[in-house]
Structures
1.
Amino acid sequence: MVVVTAVADTHRAIDAVWRIESARLIAGLARMLRDVGAAEELAQDALVAALEQWPESGVPDNPGAWLMSVAKRRAIDQFRRQERLARKVEEIGRDLETQEEPEPELDDIGDDLLRLVFTSCHPVLSTEARVALTLRLLGGLTTDEIARAFLVSESTVAQRIVRAKKTLATKRVPFEVPQGAELAGRLSSVLEVVYLIFNEGYSATAGGDWMRPELCAEALRLARVLAQLAPKEPEVHGLVALLEIQASRSRARTGPDGEPVLLLDQDRGRWDWLLIRRGLTALDRAYSLTDSLGPYVLQAAIVACHARARTAQATDWARIAALYLALGRVTPSPIVELNRAVAVSMAEGPAAGLALVDQLRDVPALANYHLLPSVRGDLLAKLGRHAEARDEFAAAAAQTRNERERRLLLDRAERAAAAG
């Protein structure tokens, strides 16, 4: 029994080490091999070796260096078999025969991780592939964990990852940080992936849970790492601020039985004020780096308005409406306009908001967007048009794929019907 417990403890330690070290390990190997797929395979080989050896030998003092050493040795073995030893040994294997693996310089680790971030989120990949590959390579999540998080099959996730690595190799995507004019567009792709991961955790698209906290936590971790790697990019700090402040509401967003609690009904005493302070600090950092506010900084400024209001009634809705107007100019979107309509309704009254919402009813992009009828139903109810509100809430319930949200909307439809 003691032996079984010791092995289990070692496996837990290996799992923890893998979560911490896997991204740096893969990043370092990818820099040497210029092949993300091969780098991940070698990292997995090193993990298997750890699972085989550490239960007997114990976890080494420097587990990251141990894993890197094993992975490099496996790479050398492969190159020997491929009769390319001489050239590759010179590139990646000079001192592999020594027992001690030298610690990489911190700058090298940061540069490698940043290269891995930009490679995993390269625009040549589909959005789904970028998300899966990022969670796999930078988050250390298994295909099963990613599949459960997004409610898809494990085989689907595995295929996405395999195709993504093949695409990177076929397209000869360089393992590097983009420079000059290319940087802004590529950085936008990276931030989009992190934000997509967070949003899926914050408001689950489908399934029986309103939130998936593990995805929120992983996205926030990735954003913080990115801020350390790219400290002079205001949009990175804007994203961190946005996620920190949104994550601060997590405890208040669900009731005792897991039911959704909307923003205006939340107990703000349950908000995490440490996360809010961190978010506001990140927002100040973003402001200090630019006079031209990008989409993530603007969205962070919006959630900061909510964070600074100790009660729902104290919210500065006029400023929020103005910020949404600015956001719509930077990134025109009907969803941004829908959010602005909500802010206008709170600042100027439901009739003003409804007038803006009605302008969006025929927009093709919102044809199946459940929040459009949901918002319209809310405004109609406030105006006393309860029969119309009931129909809108029912329509929204039919469109959402989240069971918790569906029950919330059906309940609002019933209340509207009773009020009418």
2.
Amino acid sequence: MKKFLLVAVAATSFIATALAQTAPIKTGDSAKGKVLTDEKGMTLYIFDKDTAGKSVCNGPCATNWPPLMAGGDAQDQGPYTVIVRDDGSKQWAYKGKPLYTWIKDTKPGDITGDGVANNTWHIAAP
């Protein structure tokens, strides 16, 4: 019985570790070179008005620039960190800068958000 319990505890620990959310960030190609993308290949962006570890893009801004959300069990991984948004939800950041997609990008490789709003939105590059 003790061996079974030890195996069950070890398996549960392994599964929990395996299920902990990894950064859903990849590298893709665009007309401007390499870009960071989400799992679907959509370009990720950073916002000049954000400060390291803090998103100021909320409300209508977050509707147009959906944050790259992180699950409750997500953990920092190298240059990818998890920040807490104003509403308590979690968002992925790259080197401290929160990451977003752009509502007007329709397919992988689109970079239509680069330079938007008086050049305050930029492609997140590796």
3.
Amino acid sequence: MSTFKPLGDRIAVRPLPAEEKTSSGLYIPDTAKEKPQQGTVVAVGPGRTEDGVHVDMSVREGDRVLYGKYAGTDLVLDDEELLIMKESDVLGRLDD
């Protein structure tokens, strides 16, 4: 199994699966499914440096996050789909 460790202020996110059916019970065909905008953080980089000062990451592994529709870069690692993005692409954390 390969491990992936993001550099700088990048994170790796496992997108949540796309909705299979609507709230009214209609099934959504694959061609009409929206790209997921929520996921679970699986790896976090060390942070960034601004003006010589280290800035820690504000998200941690295991956090559920909301991100922009077209954010990040798709990556398949050991048959697992991941999304690699900068921390600034994250819109917020979702708390249960």
